[in-house]
Amino acid sequence: MISVDFNDRVMIITLTRPDALNALCKKLITQLNAALDQAENDTRIGAIVVTGSGKAFAAGADIAEMKNLTFAEIAEKDFIQPWERLARCHKPVIAAVNGFALGGGCELAMMCDIIYASETAKFGQPEITIGTMPGAGGTQRLTALVGKAKAMELCLTGRMITALEAEAMGLVTRVFKAEDLLKEALATAHKIAQFSAPVVRMIKEAINDVAEVPLISGIKTERRMFHSTFALEDRKEGMSAFLEKRAAVFKNR
Ligand code: HXC
After folding, report:
1. How much of the chain, in percent, has pLDDT values that exceed 90?
2. 3-state class of 113 per DSSP?
3. Per-residue pLDDT for 166 more than 90?
4. Ligand 1 test: best mutation among 57, 62, 63, 130, most atoms within 8 Å of CB?
5. Are 57 and 27 within 8 A, CB to CB?
6. Residue 188 has pLDDT above 90, yes or no
7. What is the rounded CA–CA span in Å between residue 18 and residue 5?
8. Structure confidence at residue 192 (pLDDT)
9. Which positions ≥6 away from 241 have C-beta within 8 Å?
10. Best CA proximity match to 82, nearest among 25, 42, 127
11. Which of 10, 127, 173, 182 sits at 20 to 30 Å (Cα–Cα) from 100?
């Protein structure tokens, strides 16, 4: 249901369930989480790209798998909770959205740090049209990215938007021609992976704090993290390399 490839220091995770437009069933999420564990435990991996196949990134949670579940069953199992694994990944993740990113598919993309999209990609939170609502952070992350008015319209109507509209709203980072999407995502992933891994991790953590802690504590934590980069050999090397007009050689320590 997924395939995992390695390109130098980048792990590429491809959702490969095209017959169901990569609908996110339990098995697929289990495989995705195992790949993320693997990436997180492998010091050679500096960045992750998540992409789809066929005409979808992912068309949402698997409706067939959910259809007969009762409230008691999903509440008891805290259904969807395992999806948050992606949002908790400490390594940078780029979503390369090649087609439909709907419902849980859009939510999965929003758990990533950067969203690159092909011109033909489509985004939306259509849960309302099937009698339910976003359940994997859609109301929260979408609102943080695009603001209340736009999030309300998207979630209350289920309207699908183009990649360009999503970019204008702040949901998507950049839009590329379909044939360039993966190449561009990989180029950015390689670029990030060449930097000092502890510094990359601190930047990701500090930016994610914005959504989770009040500004005053976020600013303090950011300053402390900045101070702590001075405990790294990589910080000294980066600044020395700049002044010596040469490329830095980071050792992730
Ligand atoms: C299960 C799905 C699916 C889904 C598509 N398929 N989306 N199966 N779950 N979310 C299946 C179809 O049943 C069909 O199977 C095959 O994929 C191709 O889909 P078609 O509809 O024939 O394709 P097309 O006409 O091109 O339409 C594409 C589409 C449409 C507009 C994306 O498939 C669609 O509206 N899908 C549902 C989108 C949605 O509502 N997502 C939100 C899900 S709820 P067969 O066997 O007939 O070929 C959700 C909850 C999130 O995500 C909250 C918790 C995470």
Report:
1. 90
2. coil
3. yes
4. 63
5. no
6. yes
7. 18
8. 98
9. 247, 248, 249
10. 25
11. 10
Active-site residue among 58, 61, 95, 151?
Answer: 61
Tell me, rounded to whole angstroms, the distance of Cα 20 from its chain centroid.
21
Structure tokens, 135: 């359940």
28 Cβ contact list (under 8 Å, min separation 6)? 1, 2, 15, 17, 22, 62
Catalytic status, residue 247: no
Whole-angstrom distance, CA of residue 27 vs CA of residue 35: 13
Q: Is 104 a catalytic residue?
A: yes
Question: Is residue 17 exposed (0-12), middle (13-18) or buried (19+ Cβ within 10 Å)?
Answer: buried
The runs of H, that is alpha helices, within 102-232 are 104-111, 138-146, 148-157, 163-169, 181-193, 197-212, 215-228
pLDDT in tens, 94-129: 999 999 999 999 999 999 999 999 999 999 999 999
